[in-house]
Design brief:
The protein is an alpha/beta fold and 210 residues long. Helix content is 22%, strand content 22%.
């Protein structure tokens, strides 16, 4: 294994003193639960992570908990379980990370690979944001407040990723709605960007990270 960099202390999914560590060789984050999604492919040659995209997702819509997001990202959603599942069951979607309501963190795609999360998108005159971004899904909806634990985990994730990948920064964290306006609304008005940015700044400046 290569050098381990970019770690963060905190409570991830109820476990105390969990370290988040990005391994540059494998593209995996230690401290996250690992579930491989087939919905990914290689980034274009020479392309590195330069953007973090924050999403919101719930399955069924407006409901939290259960295995359905994981089943969706692994193409095993039971189409007869819910009418909405039948609508989306043929889609092939993933994200690099999912932050559950309790702050639990799951990785579905290696950071070295391209997750299929952003779709048609534009960032600073660059299209196809999947090529150069890391997608982080938060379990939630546009109109229900996200949980404090989710902001804490997101902040530690961003801090670790920024340390691991030099082209990332706290200024390069955007919502899905920012890169796909008019098509996507998540993470929505319920997501507190000011709180998120304060938490990210605090995570990056934590004395134990020196």
């Amino acid at each position: 294994m290569g050098a381990i960099v970019a770690y963060a202390n905190g409570v991830i999914g109820g476990a105390k003193d969990v370290h988040l560590q990005v391994d540059l060789d494998s593209g995996l984050m230690r401290g996250a639960r690992q579930v491989a999604s087939p919905n990914c492919d290689a980034r274009p040659p020479g392309m590195e992570a330069e953007l973090i995209v924050v999403h919101g997702i719930s399955l069924p819509p407006g409901e939290f908990g259960g295995p359905w997001i994981e089943r969706f990202f692994t193409n095993s959603l039971p189409l007869d379980m819910h009418a909405y599942f039948a609508e989306i069951g043929e889609l092939r979607v993933s994200a690099h990370l999912l932050v559950a309501r309790d702050g639990g963190l799951t990785q579905f795609v290696r950071f070295t690979d391209r997750a299929w999360h952003a779709g048609r998108s534009l960032y600073r005159d660059r299209v196809a944001c999947n090529d150069f971004s890391i997608g982080v899904e938060l379990e939630g909806v546009d109109t229900i407040a996200y949980e404090p634990a989710q902001y804490d985990t997101l902040a530690k994730v961003v801090a670790a990723l920024c340390d691991a990948y030099p082209r990332l920064s706290a200024d390069r964290v955007v919502g899905h709605s920012d890169i796909s306006p008019g098509r996507k609304t998540d993470p929505g008005p319920a997501f507190d960007w000011q709180r998120a940015r304060r938490s990210i700044a605090a995570a990056r400046e934590a004395p134990w990270r020196g």
